[in-house]
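Researcher: Let's do a round of design. I'm pasting the structure tokens now; please hold your answer until I've finished.
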């Protein structure tokens, strides 16, 4: 599953959440995700409502925080996230987003990331925006995120440091670090917040993919403007029926702990699949055969990832004639242990299979303190009921 963010009016954390909720991630799932941060329940509240932005319907997510301007260091935020029950992939991405924010703020203020006092982006509402957005993408099964150019407006705004020019200095640093494309805004003002810039800088590829659309999520901004102040998230499948290539290399001198990151980078660069095979090289030396499958149009990008992220000196490339694919769709089912995701396999307009997501079963089993097998078997039964209803 992929998603493309169409951002004619820019992006903020609450607009991103609005897109996700409108695309099918329920506000109850959002609240559950934030509850896992273990912050006092009386310090935050989340509401979602349908609004009209000009002629367009959209979802507005409102995050209400009881605390005032709470100054936190990066270490404080790291403690909140790592002590939570949030899934490890979500924790890692959230920490990376805050790391980007700390780097940008440090550059703006001429100091180091560890000395930065987060002001607005250290408040609980900003933490909710970031952790909530990353969790929503994860639970919707969106593996790759794309985004359009970002509108930049001028003017001035007030911050904890006093009056500053727009775009906000930290926003500019974040977008420069990500080499993000920008365009003129429809009017003066702040259309891209530091939170929105950090999320996109860490998670998005700034290009429009060839895709098969399945649904659209529309998130509303807080300002009322002469045009529809919305962000639109197009959700679907990567549509690439062109030639494919298979890239491979033998690696015998690399720390195996690093292979997970290699896989993540390859998927982010457009790989359709990545796998590792144990092999024996000369003198019976154990090694790993790294293989990546992807569109021929991404051959250079995928090769570059392998050369940069591994110790190999070369990559072999094989052209593939074609590949037959079944369409997949991520849906949710309810079980006695909680709601989890199911991957539905489609052959044309026929639902041909449904498989529970192991990570969801593992998480729910940990929360319920029961064997993963118990949750998985219950999830399989729920998936079969879902499948029967689709046929």
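Researcher: That's everything. Go ahead.
Model: Designed sequence:
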């Amino acid at each position: 599953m992929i998603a493309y963010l169409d951002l004619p009016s820019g992006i903020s954390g609450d607009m991103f959440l609005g897109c996700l909720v409108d695309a099918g991630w329920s506000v109850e799932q959002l609240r559950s995700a934030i509850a896992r941060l273990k912050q006092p329940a009386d310090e935050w509240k989340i509401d979602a409502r349908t609004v009209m932005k000009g002629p367009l319907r959209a979802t507005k997510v409102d995050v209400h925080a009881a605390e005032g301007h709470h100054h936190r260091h990066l270490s404080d935020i790291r403690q909140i996230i790592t002590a939570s029950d949030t899934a490890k992939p979500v924790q890692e991405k959230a920490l990376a987003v805050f790391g980007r924010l700390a780097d940008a703020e440090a550059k703006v203020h001429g100091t180091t990331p560890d000395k930065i006092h987060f002001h607005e982006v250290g408040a609980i509402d900003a933490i909710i925006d970031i952790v909530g957005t990353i969790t929503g993408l994860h639970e919707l099964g969106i593996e790759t995120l794309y985004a359009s150019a970002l509108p930049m407006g001028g003017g001035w705004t007030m911050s904890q440091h006093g009056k500053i020019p727009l775009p906000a200095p930290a926003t500019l640093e974040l977008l420069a670090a990500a080499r993000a494309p920008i365009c003129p805004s429809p009017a003066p003002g702040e259309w891209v917040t530091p939170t929105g810039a950090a999320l996109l800088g860490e998670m998005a590829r700034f290009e429009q993919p060839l895709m098969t659309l399945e649904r659209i999520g529309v998130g509303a901004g807080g300002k009322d403007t002469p045009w529809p102040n919305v962000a639109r998230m197009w959700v679907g499948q990567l549509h690439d029926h062109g030639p494919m290539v298979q890239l491979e290399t033998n690696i015998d001198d690399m720390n195996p702990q690093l292979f997970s990151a290699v896989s993540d980078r390859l998927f982010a660069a457009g790989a359709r699949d990545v796998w590792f095979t144990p092999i024996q090289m000369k003198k019976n030396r154990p090694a790993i055969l790294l293989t990546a499958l992807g569109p021929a149009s991404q051959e250079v990008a995928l090769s570059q990832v392998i050369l940069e992220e591994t110790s190999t000196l070369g990559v072999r490339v094989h052209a593939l004639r074609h590949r037959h694919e079944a369409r997949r769709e991520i849906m949710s089912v309810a079980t006695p242990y909680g709601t989890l995701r199911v991957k539905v396999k489609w052959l044309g307009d026929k639902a041909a299979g449904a498989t529970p997501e192991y990570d969801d079963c593992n998480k729910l089993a940990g929360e319920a303190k029961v064997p993963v097998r118990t949750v998985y078997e219950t999830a399989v039964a729920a998936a079969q009921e879902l499948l029967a209803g689709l046929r």
